[in-house]
Specification:
Blueprint lengths: L10 E5 L35 E4 L10 E2 L17 H20 L20 H16 L6 H23 L23 H18 L9 H28 L1 E2 L2 E4 L14 E4 L3 E2 L8 H9 L41 H23 L3 H24 L11 H24 L7 H8 L1 H9 L2 H7 L10 H13 L2 H23 L6
Parallel strand pairs: 1-3
Antiparallel strand pairs: 1-2, 4-7, 5-6
Helix pairs in contact: 1-2, 1-9, 1-10, 1-11, 1-14, 2-4, 2-7, 3-4, 4-7, 5-7, 7-9, 8-9, 10-14, 13-14
Organism: Spirodela intermedia
InterPro entries: HGSNAT_cat (IPR012429)
Protein name: Heparan-alpha-glucosaminide N-acetyltransferase catalytic domain-containing protein
Length: 509
């Protein structure tokens, strides 16, 4: 499907997030200080994911310092702090998700790549995971009580996972479907929020239990303090690569759900895929799909074929062409179990960037550190691609991991420089507010809960509702269905940001 710095330099510390109970009783997917944030309409407490805030200080270009002791008592009335550029990064990620999800059908160039390669849509998931890692590094810079911190991580992981299960498991049917409910026998176990929960849990546990107490005063001590996290990241990548190339994929059968949008007017109700191979990275016979079918069950995978626009040549989510291979209708989960092992490593690179904020004083040191890391990741990723490991978001290959994480780092560098170094807050204020409430935006807009609610009020027939009429009007004004859709999506993003700002009583000045 389906992700800060302030104008004034400040001391950064961890904060607890407002829980799912607050402001999310009827909302969809929710992610938090980890790439997806929660509502700030009430004091932070036990949100899904950690977050970081900022307190304004004089406008001198002093370096940010961190103090992430979220368990330490704070003086009465002392405000929580946020890292504004991380909020902007999250807000940008959520805005991108809405853009590519709602306008990707009209503009295939920004929609997900068919199977290999990367487009704008393919950077959304890594951006979310990268933001998770940065947040975790700041929140758990110091952990005086490891048991209490562990309980918080476990609780937030469970909340995020369950929320994703409700919102992405098939219970909500989204825009143009005034229904809800899911057959437990076919509920989707994994999704975007569940993947974020897995990455958050692994990064959080590693940061709490494996980081030593070495004082960072040189590059050597920096490596000494955090080397154990790289051991875990290498282990995850090694397990993934070993399974990807080592597992034997036999022939397998599948059934096509009668409700599948791609099964309309199609005679294929079941099929057999001939494989009997190892190391295949193509759509039908890869080890990623094998692991998911074995552990999760075919019925519990993403039912909209992810293979569209390959040999299947679906017009977005349209019906299957008559000459397409039968496996085009087979289920495959782009946020499955095995690929989530590789995806979690993106969180560890986010940790790496967050550690720079926590330990390096001075903007230029941080920017240099991030720039070198990002360039190395991009270089390694494209070398792996040249050597034969394709960039594949559905498989979350190592080459894709490196390239997408390198781009994530570059984007954070740009935002950090604009918002924190140059103190230019106003151009990014809407994105910042979206980032501070990213989970709400994600649930209401990206998961189409808000449009679905609006569509519930119509005139005489369900098609005559405010959402459809507004989009049709913009298409008529633009004399183009494609550009009218884009205008509608951009207005949707802008309206969502303003609505969040007004709901919190903030005034943009």
């Amino acid at each position: 499907m389906v992700v800060s710095l302030t104008a004034e330099n400040a001391a950064v510390e961890g904060s607890e997030d407002s829980g799912l109970e607050d402001g999310f009783r009827c909302r969809r997917r929710r992610g938090r200080g980890v790439g997806l944030l929660e509502s700030r309409s009430s004091p932070p407490e036990t949100g899904v994911i950690p977050d970081v805030e900022i307190v304004p200080m004089p406008m001198e270009h002093r370096p940010l310092t961190t103090a992430a002791e979220e368990d330490e008592p704070k003086a009465a009335g002392q405000p929580k702090q946020r890292l504004a550029s991380l909020d902007v990064f999250r807000g940008l990620t959520v805005a991108l998700m809405i853009l590519v999800d709602d306008a990707g059908g009209a503009f295939p160039s920004i929609n997900h790549a068919p199977w290999t390669g990367v487009t704008l849509a393919d950077f959304v998931m890594p951006f979310f995971l990268f933001g998770v890692g940065v947040s975790v590094a700041l929140v758990f810079k110091k952990v005086p009580n490891k048991t209490a911190a562990t309980k918080k991580v476990v609780a937030r992981t469970i909340k995020l996972f369950l929320l994703g299960l409700v919102l992405q498991g098939g219970y909500f049917h989204g825009r143009n479907h005034l229904t809800y409910g899911v057959d437990i026998d076919r509920i989707r176990w994994l999704g975007v929020l569940q993947r974020i929960a897995i990455g958050y849990f692994l990064a959080g546990m590693t940061e709490i239990w494996l980081v030593n107490d070495a004082t960072v005063d040189s590059p050597l001590t920096f490596v000494k303090r955090y080397y154990s996290e790289w051991v875990v990241a290498i282990l995850l990548s090694s397990v993934y690569m070993g399974l990807l190339y080592g597992l034997y994929v036999p022939n397998w059968k599948f059934e096509v759900p009668q409700s599948s949008s791609t099964n309309q007017n199609c005679s294929i109700q079941s099929g057999t895929v001939s494989c009997e191979v190892r190391g295949s990275l193509g759509p039908p016979c890869n080890a990623v799909g094998l692991v998911d079918r074995f552990f999760l069950g075919e019925k519990h995978l993403y039912q909209r074929p992810v293979y569209r626009r390959t040999k299947c040549k679906f017009p977005d989510y349209g019906p299957l062409p008559p000459n397409a291979p039968s496996w085009c209708l087979a289920p495959f989960d782009p946020e499955g179990l095995m690929s989530s092992l590789s995806a979690a490593v993106t969180c560890f690179f986010g940790l790496h960037f967050g550690h720079a904020i926590a330990n390096f004083k001075g903007h230029m040191k941080r920017l240099l550190f991030w720039s070198i890391t990002s360039l190395l990741l991009l270089l390694v990723g494209y070398i792996l691609k040249i050597l034969g490991l394709p960039l594949s978001k559905p498989l979350y290959t190592l080459s894709y991991l490196c390239v997408s994480t390198g781009i994530s780092g570059v984007v954070l560098i740009v935002i950090y420089y604009i918002v924190d170094v140059k103190q230019l807050k106003k151009p990014t204020i809407l994105l910042q507010w979206m980032g501070m409430n990213a989970l709400i935006v994600y649930a209401l807009a990206a998961c189409e809960l808000f449009p679905a609610v609006i569509q519930g009020f119509y005139w005489h027939s369900p098609e005559n509702n405010l959402v459809n009429l507004s989009e049709s009007w913009l298409q008529a004004v633009a004399h183009s269905k494609k550009w009218g859709t884009l205008a509608f999506v951009l207005l949707e993003i802008w309206f969502g940001a303003l609505l969040l700002a007004s709901s919190t009583g903030k005034v943009f000045t």
